[in-house]
Amino acid sequence: MWDELSAAAMADPSIITGQKELYVDIDIDHGPSYGETLFWNPGTAVPPYERKVTVQFDVDAPKLYDLYIKLMTQPSRQAK
Q1: Phi and psi angles of residue 79, each rounded to the nearest 5 degrees, phi first
Q2: How far is CA 70 from CA 3, 6, 55, in A?
Q3: Strands (E), the chain
Q4: At what angle are helices 2-11 and 61-73 packed, to 10 degrees?
């Protein structure tokens, strides 16, 4: 539910209960780890082109599921 978690965090940021600032990249070499998320631990030498991003680590799961069920079961708005 990664996309749903991202949308829920925008709608209600309190759903995220823990986050860290990390240097992150995605492996785009066409090998066995293609598409994997890479991150560097604090104190590790980081390539100069990397930037820190906020990574969500903990979530209030009951709150996320309650919001998801509420939004998926309510009637849709009618187009005008």
Answers
A1: -70, 145
A2: 16, 16, 26
A3: 16-26, 37-40, 52-59
A4: 90
Model confidence pLDDT, tens digit, residues 3-28: 888 899 999 999 999 999 999 999 99
Residue ranges of alpha helices (H) inside the chain are 2-11, 61-73
Map tokens 């990664």 to a residue. Answer: 2
Provide CB contacts within 8 A for 68, sequence distance 6+. 1, 4, 8
C-beta separation of 44 from 13 below 8 A: no
Angle at 35 between CA 31 and CA 41, to 5 degrees: 100
The structural domains of the chain, with segments of one domain joined by +, span: 3-73
